[in-house]
Amino acid sequence: MFVTTESINLNWLVELINEYSDLTRRAANESNKQYPELHKRPDAPAVASALNQGELIEAANRLLAVFAASQDPQAVAEQLNRLLAHGEPRLTAVVNDGVERCYLIDPSRSPLVVASALVLLDFVETNGIERLGCCAANNCADVFIDHSQRRNKTYCSQTCQTRERVARHRRSKP
Ligand SMILES: [Zn+2]
User: Fold this and answer.
1) Which residue in 3, 46, 4, 44 sits closest to 20, CA to CA?
2) What's the mean pLDDT in 162-169?
3) How many A from CA of 92 to the centre of ligand 1?
4) Torsion of the alpha carbons at 7, 102, 80 and 84, rounded to the nearest 10
5) Half-sphere exposure at residue 133, Cβ-oriented, CA atoms within 13 angstroms
6) The pTM is what?
7) Distance 37 CA to ligand 1 centre (A)
8) Residues with C-beta atoms within 5 A of ion ligand 1
9) What is the rounded distance in angstroms from the CA atom of residue 116 to the CA atom of residue 35?
């Protein structure tokens, strides 16, 4: 199975982690919520299409660990190495439009997790680990990619930001 680092959409990956990981679902009190069929969407990577719910949950739990470690470069590297070691992707040259870099991943060894780890490694190498984050709001553990210019995003969404502001305001009242 060949995977390029462009073959996994980061926004899709973030959604997978937030919708499927045990931690994010528990934090949002959504443990019993139905799992959306993200792997069947057009923006889903090909490596995800054949996975069942249990495999998607496992992948989300594993990948969340990289975001959870994002305060510490050493921890991020360790988490990525742990995921990469699982599949031992092999760097390969393939001919597409021209000669391109590609990774060969054994389909029986969590290719979604391994390919995602490659994508995340590529991303943090280019953009820095401070671009990965976990929501600071109560009742939310969602992960996010910080696209803000000041790299200071604290909450996963406007909803969480507003909710926290309201809660802070209430707490400050005598
Ligand atoms: Zn949030």
Assistant:
1) 44
2) 90
3) 39
4) 110
5) 19
6) 0.92
7) 21
8) 135, 137, 140, 142, 156, 160
9) 20
